[in-house]
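Just curious. Protein, please.
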Amino acid sequence: MASHNCPQFHTFSRQRRNRKVSRPGCAHWINLLFMTLLMRSGLQILMDHPRLYWNVHCTPATEWVRFTPVKVPMDRLWTAKDDARYLSPWIGLPGGRHTIGL
């Protein structure tokens, strides 16, 4: 059946044209909000663990990428908490050092 002979099609197309476009606009703003939260939490994780490894063992001086200028000292025990850097709560999420944001 051709669309020009169908009254339901004309009613549907008229309703589509008169509909407001606010819902897609809201969806984009909500998406922007959640993408911002995702990036902020990713920055916080990267500042808490600034060394990325390809291997399983994570032995010192074998990192693939290092986002910190601090070198691992070989004369004492070095943990991930020693390597963490502070990121302002305005930039990182959840904010603070080793917190869950509560």
In short: The first helix runs from residue 7 to 18.
